[in-house]
Please model this.
Amino acid sequence: MNKIKFIRVLVLGLVISLNQILAEDDVQEVVVISSKYPVPLEEVVGSVDSISLEDLETRMVSDLGDMLDKTIGVSVSKRNVSGRAYNDGISIRGLGGKRVNILIDGIRVAEAYTGYGRDVVDVDLLKRVEILKGPSSALYGSDGLAGAVSYITKDPSDLAEFGQNYFSVNTSYDEDNEQTKVGLLAARVGESVESLIQITTRELSQVELHDDATQELDPFDGEQLSVLAKFKLSLSDSVGLTLTLDSQEFEGDYIFKSQAGMSYFPDVVSASNVLGVDDGNRDRGTLSLDFSNETSMFDNGSIRFYVQETDQKQITTRSKTYFAAGPPTMVNAYRDYQFNQDIDGFSADFFKSINNNGRLHNIVYGFEIENIEIQRPRIRYETNLMTGAVNTFLGGEYYPNKTIPDTEIERQSFFFNDRLELNEKTTIVFGARYDGYELTPTPDDLFYANAQSTNELYFIDDSEVSMKLGFLRNLSEEVSFYAQYAEGFRAPDFQSANLSFTNLAFRYAVGTSTGLQPEESEGYEFGFKGATDNMSWTLSFYDNDYENFIDTYITGRSPQGITLYEYGNLDEVEIKGVEFEMNADLSDNLQASLGFSVPDGNKNGEQLVSIDSEEAILGLVWNSNSGKLKLSGYANITAGSHDNLPPSCGRSGCNPLLALPGTTTIDVYGSYELTSNLKLRFAIRNLTDESYWNWASVQGKSSTDTNLDIFMEPGRNMSMGLKYDF
Model:
C-alpha cells in the first residue's frame, strides 16, 4: 500500500513539473471507439486507452493477457475447468465476462464455449486495440455494462506505399509455453486495388508455472492457424468496396493427469489414460461499401454485410474401472461437448458535419440488424469392455442431451451520436441507442432428456434505450475538464434464460428463468485532461452503479429432495475509483508512462470480491540516436487484496477467502535493427522471478483451496523473435 501512495505523490509531482519544462513537438493520437469516428484522444469525453501496432510488436504480445497487462484498470482472468486452462475474459474497472462488448472491425466478436475463453482473435492480425472504460451501450448495445474493447485489423495501406509491394516474414519463440510462431504477410497498394494476406501458425505447450508452485498444469500440445485476407477495390474517387476474410483454427491435445485416480462419489471408480482433444474454428466474412459524397444526409458512410461461424468440440476419453459389490467392471468412457454459433448481420454507419452559426455538429448515426443461431449438444457414453454394452445414463443424466435448447437471437438497433462544439472551449456529446432483442428457444428431444418437466421456456421480446451525455470544457490551452453520464445494459443470454437439466447423482436441478430483466448500469465520471506538446495526462473519477445482476439462487427442494436452482436478478453493485495516466517525451530518446488505479466496490452492501487491487504501472522507453536499438521496461506494482472480504460459502459450509500480499513485477523489452530489413526482438517477463498470482484469476477462492498453485503465474521467462520485411 505504501508503494501505491508513493506513486501517487510521484505522479502528481511529475505532472506539475513536466508541464513547465517539456519542449514542443506536437503529435496527436486519435481514437474511434468513443464516437464511432476519429477524435483526438485529448478531446475524448470519458476514459479511452489504446494499444498501437508498435506496442503490440515491441512487447511481443501473443495472447489476451499479454495484450492488456499494461492497461490501467483492465485485467484478464484465467480459469481451469477439468484440467483445461484458458483466459476467461476481460474485466474493465472490476467488471468483466459477458459484460464487456468485444468488437472486431466494428462487429461483435463471436462467443466461445467454456474451456476456450476469449482468445478467439489472433492478436497478430491487429494493428490497433482501443478500450472504452465505462458503460458503452449507447454506442454498442447489449453487453456494454462495463465497457468495450475494439480490435482493428491491418489494412494494405498501413504497410505498403502507393504502387509498391510489402512482404514480411517473422518467427518467434516464447519460453513460458514453448510457443513457436511463424507468420507471413504480404500487401500491395495499386491504383484501384489494394490487397493483403497474412498467415500465422503457432505450436505451443502448456504454460510452465513458477518454480515455487507445488502443482503443474496438465500437459497440453496445441496448434493454431489464422488467416486474414483483405481486398479493397476503388470503384470511383468516392466509393470503395472492401472484402475481409478472417479465419482461425485451433486444436489441442491434453493428458489429464489431474483427472486420473480414484474417486468415490457417486460411484467408486478408478480412472486412467484420461485424454482430451479440443478443436474448433472461427470464420468471419465482411463485405463493406464505403462512400464519401457530401449530401444533406451524410458526408461519408459505410454499409456492411457480415457472417461469422464458430464450431467447437471438447472431446474427453478415459479408461475406467468400477468397483461395486461384484467383480470390477472395465469401461471406455467418451465425452464430446460441442458449441456451434452462426451469426449474420447488416449494419450501416453515416457521418455528417453541420456548421450552424459557428456551432459544429459532428453526427454519427446508423442501424444494425443481426441474427444469431446457437446449438450446444452434449454426447457421452461408456462402453463395457467385457460385454460391449453401451451405457448412456451417466452422472445422473441421460445422454445425448442439450442443457440449453437451440436458440435464435435477433437484434435490431438504431443509434445517434452528436458531438457538438459550441465554441473553441466547450463541447457537448449526446448519444442514444435503441436496441430490440428477441430470444426464441426451439426445444427438441435432446433438450427434454434431462429438463424439468415443469419448466416453462423463456421467450424474450424486449427493447432498451441507452443514453449518454458528456461535457468537455477547456480551462486553458493545456488543461480541460470533462464530465459524463452513460448507461449500459445486458439482455439475458441464452444460458441464463433457458438452462435446464436435472442431475440425479448430485441431486440438484437447474430450471428455466422466466421473468428475467436486463442487467443495467449507470456510469458517472468526471476528470481533468492535460496536454502540452510533449505530454498528455488524464485524471479520472468514476462511480458506476449496476442493477439486476443475474445470478443463480436456490428456489427450494423437490419432494424427492433435489435442490432446485434458477437464475434471477439478485445483485446490486457499485464500483467507484480514481485513475491517473500520463505519457511524456522526456527527451528525443526517452519516453515515460505513469499511471495508477484505486478502485473500490461493493455488492449488496458488502465488499465486492472481484474488484482489482490498487495498481500502479511505470514505464520507460529509450531509443538510440541511430534508431536501431530500442529498450523499454515496465514495473507493475500491485497492492495487497482488500481487507474484510466475506467468507466463501457453499453446500459444504463457509471458509475464509484467499487474500494476497502486494507484488512488484518488472518486464523488459528490446529490439535491434540488424539490417534495414531484419529486426531482432526480445522480452524478459518477470525479471526478478516473483512468485505471485493475479487477483483476477483467484478472486473468490477459498484460502483452503488445494488447487491454488495451478493459477500461479510463470517465473522469469524470455521470448525472442526475428522479423524480415522487404
User: Anything to note?
Assistant: The CA atoms of residues 169 and 184 lie 5 Å apart. DSSP finds seven helices and 42 strands in the chain. The helical segments are 2-21, 53-58, 64-68, 137-140, 445-448, 494-498, 695-698. The domain at 2-725 is CATH 2.40.170.20 (Maltoporin; Chain A).
